[in-house]
Amino acid sequence: MSEGVNNDTPATAGEEAAVGAPTPMVEEQPSAPAEASEPSAPAQETAAEEEAPPPPPPSAPALPQVEETPVIHKHFVAPALIPLDRIDEDTDFLVRGEAELEDIAGLATDIARLGQLFPIDVRLRPPDRFQVITGFRRVSALRFLQREKVLARLHTDLSDADAMLMTLASAIHSKTVGLESLSAIRASLEESGRLSPSARDMLEKALSSGDDLSPESVEEEVDADELAADVTVRLGQANQDLSLLADVFSELDETRREELLKQLRYSAELVAFLESKQ
User: Fold this and answer.
1) Considering only CA atoms, which of 214, 202, 208 is closest in space to residue 111?
2) Cα separation, 267 vs 272, whole angstroms
3) Domain 79-173 CATH class label
4) Which sequence spans correspond to the domains of the chain?
């Protein structure tokens, strides 16, 4: 039986190594993660929450799509110039008497001086004709003046019933300014120095008894050649006077200059029309 080892006896260096000498303490190093580039699961969730955009707010329930119905404007349309030769000469919507329709001398004078201030209303007759709804006197005056176009509101979708209502409304609700109001405006314009010769003439005719408003009612045969000769002489005299006024035109009163230019513009339009007839 072998002798036991005496624990009190010091052992040699070899024995210490062989017999269970105490192992020197080594400081434990923290174990490295399995994959340095892969964060832990909680870290991944946190990063995902930070990078992900906030969820959109709950959207309202989608409404059913309603197809828009196109709106057709029947009445309030922009005026445009329409050739007079495309206006039909019918009287379906004429509510005036023949006497009123033929009394256009004053209206023609105003249109010649100022142009057509108020458009007529017409309805389309496919493919390219037009029917008068309102404005028969203006059409007659423009034809009397040998004009080529009329300012009109074109209605492309107007029933017979609506057209008749428009005609009646224009006839019933139109109201002439009273004589007292015309007298007051004439006095006001004269007092303020704004009563031009043309305005004075227009107001005097409107305030008169009416005998001088229908010179066309007096029928008189006139020889065209004699009338042309007379007009030529008078135009020659007027041209001489105009040549004298040309030197002092800038010194004339502003109202006088404007009235003179209006008449000259009208004459220029007549010249262009007459030349087209040659």
Assistant:
1) 202
2) 9
3) alpha beta
4) 79-173, 176-215+253-273
Q: Is the peptide bond before 54 cis (omega within 30 degrees of 0)?
A: no
- How many Å is the Cα radius of gyration of the chain? 51
Q: Which tens digits make up the pLDDT trace of 25-80? A: 444 444 444 444 444 555 454 544 555 556 655 555 555 565 555 544 444 567 89
Rounded Cα distance between 198 and 193, Å, is: 13
> Does the reported pTM lie above 0.70?
no
Segment 95-103 shows an average pLDDT of 80
Burial class (CB in 10 A: 0-12, 13-18, 19+), 236: exposed
Query: Which residue is associated with the tokens 């399995």?
Result: 34
Which one-letter DSSP state was computed for residue 147?
A: -
Write out pLDDT tens, residues 194-245.
Answer: 888 878 888 888 887 654 444 433 344 556 777 777 778 888 888 888 888 8
Q: Which two tokens stand for residue 5?
A: 């080892």
Burial class, 191, CB count within 10 angstroms (exposed 0-12 / middle 13-18 / buried 19+): exposed
Helix (H, G, I), strand (E, B) or coil at 148: coil
